[in-house]
Amino acid sequence: MPGRNLAIYSANIYTGMPDKPWAQALGMEDGKIKAVGSNQEVKDAMPDAEALELSGRMVTPGLTDAHCHFISMGQSLMMVDLRNLTSLEECRRRIKQAAAKLEPGQWLLGRAWNHHMWQEAREPNRHDMDDIVPDNPAMMVRACGHSQWLNTKGLETAGIVAGIPDPPGGKIDRDENGQPTGMLREARRVVIAHVPPPTNEYLKKACLLAQERALASGLTCVHTYESLAEWRAFSELEQEGKLKLRVHHNLQHAELEEMLERGMHRGYGSERLWVGQMKLFADGSLGANTALLFEPYCDDPGNCGLPFTEPEVLKERVALCHKNGFSVAIHAIGDKAVSNSLDAISHGRKEYPGQRRDSVDHVQICRTEDLERFKEMDVVASVQPVFIPTDWNVASSRWGAERCEAHNAYAWKTIQDMGIRMQFGSDTPVEPIEPLLGLQAAVLRQTTGLEPEGGWRPQERMTLEEALDGFTRTAAWVEHKEGLRGVLQPGALADLTVFGRDLSQTPPEEWPQIPIEYTIIDGEVVYQK
Known about the structure:
By secondary structure, the protein is α/β, with parallel strands linked by helices. Helices cover 31% and strands 22% of the residues. A hairpin with a 5-residue loop joins strand 13 (171-174) and strand 14 (180-185). Helix 2 crosses helix 7 and helix 10 packs across helix 11. The two termini are 21 Å apart.
């Protein structure tokens, strides 16, 4: 239900409107923005509204995470957490602690290890887990989500033995005797088929955990990439009155037929939960050396990555989505994967013309001629600034500094200046969901420890306003809700994020420490510090 009539005064309010980007006050009535302007203008428009004096704070349109795996994030909060550990031995200790609580035969799942941060400076193998988890199957997913580390029991349970062929679009690492080492690439689905699926109640619990964290971080909407199982959890929570966030649910291409049988179409749902784009994959990830490139990796000269979906198959799948009225969101990290994705979108639009709001997601390295195609085709670049602190050093070493410059690595400012629509997300649980970390990374292009000095590829640093637009305006356009969300103007939905300090008056180095004071959706305060 829409919240009470409320007016905010004396704040620094970013409206997102190019003709008048900043204001002092705004008023909300019946879940919508009624007035924006000076204190006096809003008082004149809404003399009886409840007043909230917010001097020294900054207010923005409600922030949107435009690329995440939301319920997966909630599930990760209940898994073995290996994020930011600096050695394999630290990971082993944490896994051993969790394994001590297992029932016989129960899978042990964890995620977010990153061997680039380890003292050992190598990928793990099954023997690194066998002595601490000998009798239970176990899988630990890399931070990027594209590599999996299994113990021997996990490999056996999943049927991954010597002689088994690599799955389509994936790779099983093998030793000199042909035995699986315990490292899989782009093959998690092979393992998941042998893991008992989570119950609906478990998914709902995960969703509520994730929602609590998202609201506290100032988010009012998420674009999540998940399945019909997660859709059911979201839907039941909405019916129970427990879903506070807005959810633009991007579903998987493999479920298209079932969706059509259920009568689901783009926009199907409500103002709180609706069907968005169809998700497809063109390649893997940088961290797993599976992002698809035109030229080989510097540290792996015979490897140009993996096409998760072969180009002709990708074209067919995009065309099928377009035929059924869906826009697409294609995961593409490497420059060749990005180019293949644009080819597929162009093909689908020619086969089935219509108004499409397609995106290519990640775009971590891209040839200039393909950036020009983004602009010509009006395809959205859906990117994650929060990747820069984790990736800058890895990208420089694996792709080479010269290629990063020539092929526009993480080139958010260039994309902005070319007039390409761009939206920001976190890809959580790959990275933390908090938008302040993404805002800081977009503006500084450094780690939270302020490395490298001056920022990585500093010519790509953005202004605060440009970064805020990445979390607001384009996401609303992708949702077909431009003018209603992503801006603060009369008639727009009263979705707001209130920062405890004014970011425009605070050094970006300090932004991660700034609390969210209020998160407001439909004029209702859904989070208060």
